[in-house]
Amino acid sequence: MRTVFGKNRGGLSGIRTDDLAALPLRELVSRHPGLEAARIEDVYYGNTNGAGEENRNVARMAGLLAGLPVTVPGVTLNRLCASGGEALIQAGRAVATGDADLVVAGGVEGMSRAPYVLQKPDEALPRQMALQQTTVGWRMVNPQFPDDWTRSLGECAQGVAEEKGIGRGEQDEWAARSHELVAAAYDAGKHDGFVLPVGDVTRDESLRPESTVESLGRLKPAFTRDGSVTAANASPINDGALAAFVGTREVAAELGAEPLGTIVGSATVAVSPERFAVAPVPAIAKLLARAGLSHKDIDLWEINEAFAAMVLSTLSELPDVDRDRVNVNGGAIAIGHPLGASAPRVVVDLCRELKRRGGGIGVAAACIGVGLGQAVLMRVD
């Protein structure tokens, strides 16, 4: 289950981040009345910011707030934009090694509620102190880092796209495609029973079905005066949470639940921080090499749309990938990118679409700030 993804200061912004984390977990458990909740052996949640109401191990708080027995532990993981993906991977490893047979994995981000922070000064009586935002990106930057490493994510993605000759028009086309496909998926009922409405919010709030290349083209650049990345061809700031059961097939059979997919493998890699936009490329290469597969063996792809510039830069280095098989129901530009919940969303959506198509093999990938990339290989029967 996942919540609808709310827009910045939108319909979910009045919900504490720890309460938001509990919503899909509580719903997930309630939909399996035969489950003894104490049987859940751990809760793995991804969370990126961790500076606000989720600061005290939000996985544990989500379990308590969702009404799980106090005996169910929890752990919060942070791999920035792939935090929730890391939660799925670590949960899968726990099951594969026999350390557990049923856990919960997912993630949460309440970006609307990310607080300002005040760095503790070096001197006892400082003359001035500056508040820093914790919503997204760098803060309290170490002066030893080169300036190129700590530029905004949008500016870095834009730089890589320019290097590859990917312009504003192509980025706006990809963004319009995302809105069109997400709207079509909702209209076709593909998210019925999966996306949990919250209050009056029944669809992802950043979705703008009326978006066209022409309307998107009227927005001004967001990061540099004459740049190509805008607020419209980048993912927005969002609130949302996702929770999934990860366990053995035997437990699934006991619960009468059909497995959505199997984690076959994963790979996480690092590149120079300013080139994070193409970090999914070596992650995918490493993943497929381990599995003995090629790009042509993959039925569907999900690449988290942090920026259209980032997706297109990644695809420019994957010429064998059929773009019609990438993000077939749209992506984060329209759905939203609540950081801790984003990577598990692409994994789950990949599996759900493969299931609708009768099964197959898919790859879910994400770029990650500070020069990381992650890819997960899923098999759906």
UniProtKB/TrEMBL annotation:
<keyword id="KW-0012">Acyltransferase</keyword>
<protein>
    <recommendedName>
        <fullName>Probable acetyl-CoA acetyltransferase</fullName>
        <ecNumber>2.3.1.9</ecNumber>
    </recommendedName>
</protein>
<comment type="similarity">
    <text>Belongs to the thiolase-like superfamily. Thiolase family.</text>
</comment>
<dbReference type="InterPro" id="IPR016039">
    <property type="entry name" value="Thiolase-like"/>
</dbReference>
<keyword id="KW-0808">Transferase</keyword>
<dbReference type="Pfam" id="PF02803">
    <property type="entry name" value="Thiolase_C"/>
</dbReference>
<dbReference type="InterPro" id="IPR020610">
    <property type="entry name" value="Thiolase_AS"/>
</dbReference>
<dbReference type="InterPro" id="IPR020616">
    <property type="entry name" value="Thiolase_N"/>
</dbReference>
<dbReference type="InterPro" id="IPR020617">
    <property type="entry name" value="Thiolase_C"/>
</dbReference>
<feature type="domain" description="Thiolase C-terminal">
    <location>
        <begin position="258"/>
        <end position="379"/>
    </location>
</feature>
<dbReference type="Pfam" id="PF00108">
    <property type="entry name" value="Thiolase_N"/>
</dbReference>
<dbReference type="InterPro" id="IPR002155">
    <property type="entry name" value="Thiolase"/>
</dbReference>
<feature type="domain" description="Thiolase N-terminal">
    <location>
        <begin position="2"/>
        <end position="246"/>
    </location>
</feature>
